[in-house]
Amino acid sequence: MTLTRCKYTDSSKYKSGKVSGKRQKAINSTQKHDEAEEADDRPENEDASQLIDDREYDSVVSSTMHVTKRILNTQHVAIIQPYIKWGPRKSATKPELMLQEAEALVRSLPKWNIELSLKVPVETLEKRQLFGTGKLEELKAILRAQQEAGTLLTCVFISKGTLTYGQKQTLENEFRLPVMDRYSVVVQILRLHAVSMEAKLQVALAELPYIWSQVKDQEAGSSGKGAIGGRIFLSDSQRQMLQLRERKLRHELSTIRSHRELLRNRRKQKAFPIVAVVGYTNAGKTSLIKALTQEQSLQPRDQLFATLDVTAHAGLLPCQLEVLYMDTVGFMADIPTGLIECFVATLEDAMLADVIVHVQDMAHEAHPEQRAHVERTLQSLMRDGDRKLTEDRIINVGNKIDLVPDPSDLPRSADTDADDRLHLISSQTLHGVHELLMEVERRVLRVTGRQRMVIRVPMGGQEVAWLYKNAAVTETAADSENAERMLVSVVITEAKLQQFRHLFIRNHSL
Fold it and tell me: 30-44, 235-249, 294-308, 346-360: which range is least confident on average?
């Protein structure tokens, strides 16, 4: 029996990443088995359900954040996008693009209608009333004119990460309308898109830092003398309720995450390489996974934060090696740390993946800023982890090139073999998808230490069955030199190769 290293088997017939036949059934069976075991092991979720349906808490969060379970209620929104005109804190993103993103947030909520959109220059975002006195009077006049003209306004969305309690109180008193910030609007979107119990618990936990920050601002503003603007401090019982709620939420999430870690360990035992797909919200992560796997059940949505749960999708590389693509929650700029931290655990699978595919929306004018934001966030998330974010693990993908008006505007990579090159693709037209699959294969094999080999084994022997079970068999053929032998092309890890040698090969030299 001999083993031969080979550069490549014929992959031209494997242009699809779809897993079919027995392989698909095997992977589906594995996933269903894992899910069934997870469901059997998971404790009852009565406490978790009670945390989601808590009327006392709902009254607190409604008064603090203006969020409600009645998401489908019609809202008529005036959007105000403040931006710093100059100085070191000026954003690299154009005010027009910042306003577009604020509008996209509102459009992500059903029956939320944009009645007015304004971008307003400010010197700083820290003033108590946020805007200068003259600008504030101008905004009040604009809102009043809209209402007098018959436009119904039910709330004002100030597109700033978090408004302080004093800023919100002042603006609500001046505008005589409820005022929401980005934190509040994003939480409302997350509430809408949370499907699994874990996602619902994460959203519930994400609300608490905001409430506590508002309480802290209120106390600092009142110097301990009572209420500001007619609002009353939280009662002692409400404070105790929030503290108890936070402890219970963290406990429930810890229990759920321990089960996810169990599933992750099972995947490791089955030796499936993991490819995490990350990117700015609405960059086309789910669409790309659908293009790579041809999984028809995937239904991508043109919405912000459409994916909150990490989901695994089986795919096949050109060399016939099965991989799992992990879909993840999207990133967004100007989202407060307290909101991001509650979703860090959701990104654990991405941080521990063998390869990370970073999807970027090339049709978006601010895609360079979006890319930089995702990279900064990933670096910060992995800073304290066991695994470093190295270039050989990251594949940069420029998606939606079919929507770019002038293809000459697309960046070109001078070195097509460089790890940091940008792979231009369209998940809709499938342009560049096969080339991307080839790159994913190259990275997966390199990072996981797998190699392609041709092994000559006895016809009908135990060796063939062992290889099918422990390696990716890409091709089998009769040995033209020996009718009792066959040639098996495989992709195999070094550990499994040594195991094969120990079991079946007396002469261990290649």
Answer: 30-44
